[in-house]
Amino acid sequence: MVTPALKYSAQPRFLVLLLALGATSGCSSTPEKPAGKAPLAPCGWFPNCVNSVSGQGLQAVDPIKANDEQWQEIKTWIARQPDWEIVIDDNDFIQAIVKTPLMRFRDDVQLQFDPLIELIHARSSSRLGISDTGTNYRRIETLREVLDPAAASGRTSGTNSRSNLHD
Asked: Which range of residues forms the domain containing residue 74?
């Protein structure tokens, strides 16, 4: 028989566990392709996303400077990556699903190229969890480095002050 004191002391623990599970599985849905020339969708309020258009604070990432040739280079690089799957390739827009190495979580990457100003706007978001521990920021920085290793080289020993905010 369970004593009343034991029965009531277990309830708060159960509630805390239930809330923790709900928080860690804070899901986000797959982002939609923007209509026409609309900007990339903003990140939600969880810190598991970066966005070069609307990101602020830890959700901010700079757009990637690129001309037409470099845009094609990025698309080719993405297509060659074993953990990346391109799901939409529509001229100046690409959407890919990236599987994380260890746990095989599925993350979403959207890139929108503006040839007139030679910029790639980027959005990278995790589908699960509240925090991404900087993974999405580093993913966009990797793309920047593909085009110009020196451009991503505000780094010393592979990190810069911005990426340290995500770790």
From this structure: 39-164
Which tokens hold the place of 122? 């980027």
| Token duo for residue 151 | 């451009």
18 falls within a domain: no
pTM over 0.85? The answer is no
Q: Give kind and range of the element (H or E) at residue 112.
A: strand 106-114
The span from the CA of 72 to the CA of 120, in Å, is 11
Tokens of 118: 């030679």
Spatial separation of the C-alpha atoms in residues 163 and 135, rounded to whole Å: 9
What are the pLDDT digits (tens) for 54-106? 888 889 999 999 999 999 999 999 999 999 999 999 999 999 999 987 778 89
Residue-by-residue DSSP string for 113-126: EETTTTEEEEEEEE
User: For the chain, what is the domain count?
Assistant: 1
Burial class of 94 by CB neighbour count within 10 A (0 to 12, 13 to 18, 19+): buried
* Burial bucket for residue 66 (CB in 10 Å: 0-12, 13-18, 19+): buried
